[in-house]
Amino acid sequence: MTVLQSKPLLLRACEAGVFGKNHVYENGSIAEALFTYLSGEPNEALFNQLCVPKCGRHLVCLSGQWENFIQQKYPDAETYVRYEMKPLNHFVLPNLCALPAEFELRKFGEKEFDTKPFSHGENYKSAEDFASNGAGAVVWHKGKIVSSASSFISFENEVELDFSTLEDYRRKGLSNHCLSEMLKTCENRGLLVHWDAQTELSRDIAFKFGFELNQSYKVYIA
């Protein structure tokens, strides 16, 4: 399946006016919400106004009409596949080996919010806003954050998950510790977690925490 069949949390938040910008017309919409979500019937004039050539937008089609339009307009467009998992609020939390002594696992607090590792926390007004509505955890090493799992946005007691690790610190299991701590917090607070995996590796990590695949879909880079 190449067309996204469900409305992701980012799009729902955009339609509600709390994230990004939604351009609505009679038979569809173009929503700028990290990705550019294309719904309903194509509006070529509006699309050309918003998406100048080679703008680097990541386009997600929610209708076959839009996908046909994009394929005809950009026949040589670069594409990749994302993996939308089914939202979850109860998780499989694996037994993890303790981190080496030089690494410290911490919840995403005020200091972490001020640091905003990997841009985590940027969509929250304050550390208090994040503490009330978001969730996250990080690993510190020698005075810097080297791995982080965090809610990207929060909307109606639901969160969009994002995680990242510095390249030199990958394959050490650090992200698993961050994810486990974050998901534990989400479960305790009853937050519904959305995981939209960018790669097969991210998808496979999601499986380990009990997520199931909802669908794969194609993203076009314009």
Q: What order do the helices and strands follow? A: HEEEHEHEEHHEEEHEEHE
* Record field, number of beta strands: 12
**Count of individual helical segments:** 7
Q: Averaging pLDDT over every residue, what do you get?
A: 96
Q: Main sheet: which strands, in order across?
A: 1-2-3-4-12-5-11
Describe the main β-sheet briefly.
7 strands, mixed
Structural class: alpha+beta
**Overall 3D form:** elongated
| DSSP helix fraction | 25-40%
Radius of gyration: 18 Å
- β-strand amount: 25-35%
Q: Report, as a whole number of angstroms, the end-to-end distance.
A: 20 Å
Q: Indicate the low-confidence ranges by residue numbers.
A: none
Write the layout of secondary structure elements.
Layout (H helix, E strand, L loop, with lengths): L8 H7 L5 E5 L2 E6 L1 E6 L3 H7 L7 E4 L2 H10 L4 E8 L17 E5 L2 H6 L11 H7 L2 E6 L2 E12 L2 E8 L8 H16 L2 E3 L1 E2 L2 H9 L4 E9 L1
Parallel strand pairs: 3-4, 9-10
Antiparallel strand pairs: 1-2, 2-3, 4-12, 5-11, 5-12, 6-7, 7-8, 8-9
Describe the structure.
The protein has helices at residues 9-15, 44-50, 64-73, 110-115, 127-133, 174-189, 200-208, and strands at 21-25, 28-33, 35-40, 58-61, 78-85, 103-107, 136-141, 144-155, 158-165, 192-194, 196-197, 213-221. The protein has 7 helices and 12 strands. The protein is elongated, with a radius of gyration of 18 Å. A 7-stranded mixed β-sheet has the order 1-2-3-4-12-5-11, sandwiched between helices. The protein has a 5-stranded mixed β-sheet with strand order 6-7-8-9-10. The mean pLDDT is 96. The chain has 222 residues and is an alpha+beta fold. The chain starts with 8 loop residues before the first helix and ends with a strand.
